[in-house]
Amino acid sequence: MSEVVGGRRARGGGAARRAERSAVRIECARFIERNIPNLEILDDEALAIIEHNAETVLEEIGVNFVENPEALKRWQAAGADVDFEAERVRIPRGLARQLCKTAPASYVQHARNPERSVTVGGRGLVLAPVYGPPFVRDADGGRRYATLDDFHKFVKLGYMSKWLHHSGGTVCEPTDVPVNKRHLDMLMAHMTLSDKPYMGSVTEPSRAADSVAMSEILFGGLEDRTVMTSLININSPLTFDGIMMGALEVYARANQAAIISPFIVGGAMAPVTVAGTLTQVLAEVLAGVAYSQLVRPGAPVIFGAFVTSIDMNSGAPTFGTPEASLITYGAGQLARRLGLPYRSAGAFTGSKLPDAQAAYESANSLNMGLLAGVNFMLHACGWLEGGLVSSFEKFVMDADQLGVLHHLAAGIDMSENGQAMDAIREVGPGGHYLGCAHTQANFKSAFWRSEVLDYKPFETWAEEGARDTMALARARVDKLLADYQKPALDPAVEEALTDFVARKKASMPDAFM
Amino acid sequence: MSEVVGGRRARGGGAARRAERSAVRIECARFIERNIPNLEILDDEALAIIEHNAETVLEEIGVNFVENPEALKRWQAAGADVDFEAERVRIPRGLARQLCKTAPASYVQHARNPERSVTVGGRGLVLAPVYGPPFVRDADGGRRYATLDDFHKFVKLGYMSKWLHHSGGTVCEPTDVPVNKRHLDMLMAHMTLSDKPYMGSVTEPSRAADSVAMSEILFGGLEDRTVMTSLININSPLTFDGIMMGALEVYARANQAAIISPFIVGGAMAPVTVAGTLTQVLAEVLAGVAYSQLVRPGAPVIFGAFVTSIDMNSGAPTFGTPEASLITYGAGQLARRLGLPYRSAGAFTGSKLPDAQAAYESANSLNMGLLAGVNFMLHACGWLEGGLVSSFEKFVMDADQLGVLHHLAAGIDMSENGQAMDAIREVGPGGHYLGCAHTQANFKSAFWRSEVLDYKPFETWAEEGARDTMALARARVDKLLADYQKPALDPAVEEALTDFVARKKASMPDAFM
């Protein structure tokens, strides 16, 4: 393929070297490697009950693979009991778990900038931004349909966010671009405006194939390297639709990673109880991951769990709730027992504004995600209004809070310097530590410091306009976008990508459905 | 004492019965008993190092007991090496820990309404409101010096808050009352406007004695029952002042509980490292608790740790930070190894407003407090601006979030009903759970529901004025204060308390220092 050649040319090209020399280096933290334990809220007996029940669900109730005759045949060949008319697959006890064994416990997702590559699994935590909202909101323009221009801004903010490891996927829906061509513009933005890892399209199998093709251009051939982690939602309860499975098949065949994720509003798509929801989540993930391994044994997949609860008064989904936390903790244990990387949590909120509600709910979920052992956290910043809105201010507010997770995950330094006995001796009773030698040697790195929040004395703060967090965040958005500079990319690669997108767009009429 | 008689009369009096019949019953959750584990971030080796280092601090550096010759004599008699001129006490390795053994692992703090009594220690968590701010803030009046009228409102809000178990102490400083008489009005408010447990005064030993005397009136004699938990701060680093120790002595002698609490802004009153701060915290608590047991073996005390970090750019204390969380987790482990109840965490924030910053920082600390095994959480609601301000709106916002902690602490119901296999069978692939029998039977209690936050559809919310959390909280404050009704109290007891306060006030001139 010409695109691959274009990519390979980049490695030694003078243009690429010139582009690299002129590029601004943006600070980006490495993905989190936890030095603290997970919170294990279920004991072994409870876990065994849930695992037994999940196998019962698979064996007796089964799952539906709809509009996907090939999938039904695959399942039959693997030993499942398949009802072709009902599209129902009943999976004998133990079979799905057995099939899951070929899925890797962790994998590397390569970024075009090797410093930005991430390992998904183990003790790690990779943070990725909000995914999917059709609306955006900012302090100036309020709430409105998202456009490609908004999309570009979010990719730039993600690139500029120190604590964000991943550029994500549909950071907002560019509703001004035809539905059947959006994925091309979105991928182009992630590939050219950022050098962090990104997600592929899942809205049609053909768009997944385009994602693979564009990645081949960007990377100069993939040769089975994993360069995308994409989001495959399960139609909970217990249903796998043909489009999502088609995309999964494309990705698995190309050794690209997929999050196999039940999408659950508890009380609607799953039972109102935590243990019942965990049972269903496990059954769904077992079936989905097993299916990925039927397509290609060894394909990288993630145990996903998008779980929230419902307000039984209004039917609205609710976020940052204790029931969602309990499920997230429990599902983490189930994922670890299955030996799979785990995706859950995010800066979730039902609030319409980036206000205190948004922050309480988001902080509840972010903290829980760290302690639940999540390995891949989508929606880690920018989510607002139950996922209907990508908020510019909340993006930078949440992204700043992700620094808290990094420092918490680092655990406690028990070195001689950490023990600080010299400092305690030097200062003694009634003294203070501000000027002591140990403080002078350590203060720069001792404490996490927000780059958004207000630490000023009351009087200074009042003189400067008594700004609330939204106003501070708005200033931060403006600053990051003003400071943004595009990361270096070989012009030949960018040209090849541009050509690919232009040819694809020209090959089909616009569709807005 | 006439007051005691007055109290005893209450038990059988017709007036008391009439008062009880006419009272509105306010819903109040029982204190939390955790059904989830604590997060243990330090391993045994790290804990042993910190414990060893703390003993080294006590033995080699020592602690100061200032302006308190009696305390120095007590320490000498107990076997410590005392420098009377320097007021320095060096405690031989192991002695303080040995003395701590007589302190109870848990205790009951009785409330005048027995349903509101709390157990402090074990797997429990008792939640108490903000303590100490000289200012108040509300949406209408902004920031201003606190008055007794504000104090009364906060006590009423605490009484009306379902998830708050404790009425607290100095919910704000009533700055319009002379300093030497404030404690009388504050105690009167807690005793008459609420029936939840409360804290005593610590600002002078004589005020602690007044607190005990008024409690004797309220309870009709104490007879060693513990009815107060009061806050004894250590002057970190390593200094115990005569006033606080004097108050501690009064309370210990009366078998009233005290929180022995280092007050640490890391980098100023303790080393900038987590392990160093934990070492100092443990040394200080060991010395303080040991001292309480020298005054009265068996006196109930709490291992306290008020810990925050400092912004090294400005010197301002910062809240909800990862370093403070690490210290709080570690100190919880140290407290459990010492066999003492543990006080830490709170709805801390440095923000000037009840905005997103306030909520992020508070949620970080509230979640951490639950998982760190805190048994008594002061400042669980209402804290703003680094503790300078008690905020009416934040009080109800935080108090609402305390419901999240209750539901999270309940853990996962693994009963047959919790497992919900019937529901999964009934609904099957592609169905929904909203109408199924299991949902109908469980939905009322299945999910925690906020009484402050917004769960409405966007359009409804916009029509109703697009209110942010502060506006919603303001409405909640108004509603709770409008709904408030004083809990029943025998008029004879109230009269006796009023008499006591009047006599005490008349006995001394006003002092404002």
What does this structure look like?
The structure is a homodimer of 513-residue chains. Chain A has 513 residues and is an alpha/beta fold. Helix content of chain A is 46%, strand content 13%. Chain A is built from 19 helices and 19 strands. In chain A, strand 8 and strand 9 form a beta hairpin. In chain A, helix 12 runs parallel beside helix 13 and helix 13 crosses helix 18. The longest helix of chain A has 22 residues. The two termini of chain A are 31 Å apart. The N terminus of chain A is likely disordered. Chains A and B meet through helix 3, helix 10, helix 11, helix 12 and helix 13 of A and helix 3, helix 10, helix 11, helix 12 and helix 13 of B.
Helix and strand topology:
The structure is a homodimer of 513-residue chains.
Chain A: H1 2-12, H2 14-22, E1 32-33, H3 44-61, E2 63-65, H4 69-78, E3 81-83, E4 88-90, H5 95-100, E5 106-109, E6 118-121, E7 124-127, E8 135-138, E9 142-145, H6 148-160, H7 182-193, H8 205-219, E10 229-234, E11 239-240, H9 242-253, E12 257-265, H10 274-295, E13 301-304, E14 306-310, E15 317-318, H11 322-338, E16 342-343, H12 356-371, E17 376-377, E18 383-384, E19 389-391, H13 392-409, H14 416-419, H15 421-427, H16 437-446, H17 458-463, H18 469-483, H19 491-506
Parallel strand pairs in A: 2-11, 7-17, 8-19, 10-12, 12-13, 12-14, 13-16
Antiparallel strand pairs in A: 1-7, 2-4, 3-4, 5-6, 8-9, 14-15, 18-19
Helix pairs in contact in A: 1-8, 1-19, 3-10, 6-7, 7-8, 7-19, 8-9, 10-11, 11-12, 12-13, 13-18
